[in-house]
Amino acid sequence: MNSAKVVKVEPKKLLPEIYKQLEAIVGPEWISEDRAIVEGYSRGLMVPTDISPKHAKDPTVLPACVMLPGTTEEVQAIVRLCNRYEVPITPYTNGQMFVTPTTSGTVCIHFSRMDRIMEINEKNMTATLQPYVSYNALQAEAMKKGMWNGGTPLATGICKVASQFAGAGIWQTDLKYGTLSRNIVSVKMVLPDGDILVTGSAGQPGTENFWEYSPGPDIIGLTRSSLGTLGLVTEITVKLHTWVGGSSFPEDVGHPSINTYYEDVEKKRFDRPPAPERHRIYWLEFPDYDSEIEALYKIAHSGIGIGLNATGAYSLYYCSQTTEMTNQRAEEEFFFPWNCYVMLAGISSEKQLEYEEKVLKQIARETKGKFLSEEYKPEVLDALAPWSQDCIRHVTGMRMCRGGWSGFVIPIGRISMAKKHSVIWCKALEELGETHITDRGGCGSTPMIYVVNRGHFMYSETDNYPQTHADPNGLDKVLEYLIYSHTASIKERIAGMGAAIAAEPFTSFYPEIGPNTNMFLRKVREAFDPKGIYAPGRRVYTKEEFEKVPMEVVGLINKHREKFSLPAVKAE
Ligand SMILES: Cc1cc2nc3c(=O)[nH]c(=O)nc-3n(C[C@H](O)[C@H](O)[C@H](O)COP(=O)(O)OP(=O)(O)OC[C@H]3O[C@@H](n4cnc5c(N)ncnc54)[C@H](O)[C@@H]3O)c2cc1C
Known about the structure:
alpha+beta
């Protein structure tokens, strides 16, 4: 008989008197410390720091309780109480990233009851949303009125605008609309002491909600990407733009669908939804990396189009309806390595589309680009069809078929930086070994590139897809990839690893950024949250938290820093 002692994993509970007071705020129906419920909030979907502790049976990630407030006032009352008793809080919408408790005894605030679109202002083109309003819901409502929010992340349509404010907000139409952060008018937040902050002109009571830079400095800029550590968003107002794509959505009633999935797959019955009305998507291939980069610059600068991105390996998972197909296409190198797609919109008229198509064709001639068409690689063009469904506006259609996406390397730079990113990624693959065949995207092929703001900069992305069910060590490798890529990028002076999101342990171990951004963010944290109750240590460590980072993490980071001739960092 195995005599090893089994240690029971138990969440730290709240003191009964605190629990009772919290219960009084929302009512017994909207709070729970039931084990089955709190388990559901103890693992994020994609970042190793959200997944690995769960695999290691670390009880820290089990919230003490989960609460579903219905109003800003209830959120405020919860925060005030938690602040008084110094109980940590983590906000949660769908739980994709940076959501698990960082400290035992955390209250998880799930915003699922705050799901109303509060206003769509047609004249001034804005929408005010509660935190649980998804991209899907916003777009469906706004499009009925001939407007939309200007973009859609590759993340599922159920992800929320408010949680993206707390994270990245990269869209596939960033070429024209330029990321979520450029489309926010106002945010209402409950601060860690329970005060309410309204940013922009709406912060002056009675004044209309139309302008973002007020009061004084850019407070939205200070709080965006803070991963729920500076304020809990209870309302967000975003800009809307003209939409000419119609209001019908090709919903998931076709094939493959959940009801007939296996039959659909067997018979290869996969729908080919068209792009929205007055929108066209063009696919181009280039003979080499340099031609692709040149074309990206030229298209971006020409002023045409609303979206311009290169896809690389992303076409594999985005356009394969089974994981088997993804893997096979990766083996066969089904998709050409150097490509891009361009989205044109006839916002003013059909003629706009015709004119922009002419410009695009001219640029293709100048850069040796070839259009996929009925004549040239029709089978590849057909396979790429799922992009037209989802890259402009969100639908609940076919999603990606790939392994466990848990490591994403997203440096920011000028378009030509993509080549430097590829060099780093190839070296990482060579040294660390791939976690799955699709990790190769970006080495020998273009990374996923999102061109932003008419080409002023771009995000380029490479990822790891370990099969975590088969290889539990895959996650350790992913963390090492992140550390390797981050360190190499700092050395190469590449900006903004991790989509400009500051998250630990990267904030404190790379003082080259800023320099010493970690010290600045620490001060910001102290000013907003002196008691450290909002997801402590998620965005930036205090000195005490930094000193407690496990030696194996410190050692791993410093090993890579040393390899790239960067001085070792001491926790302080
Ligand atoms: C397949 C896939 C593709 C993705 N592609 C993209 C992409 O193209 N572009 C992009 O930008 N992102 C992308 N992401 C990331 C993802 O879109 C974001 O993490 C998104 O915000 C997750 O939504 P969520 O509702 O699950 O938020 P959660 O994961 O629940 O929360 C995200 C963060 O926001 C905080 N938070 C939640 N609600 C609030 C609130 N009300 N106030 C303050 N903080 C809050 C949480 O604590 C957490 O730190 C992708 C994710 C997946 C899984």
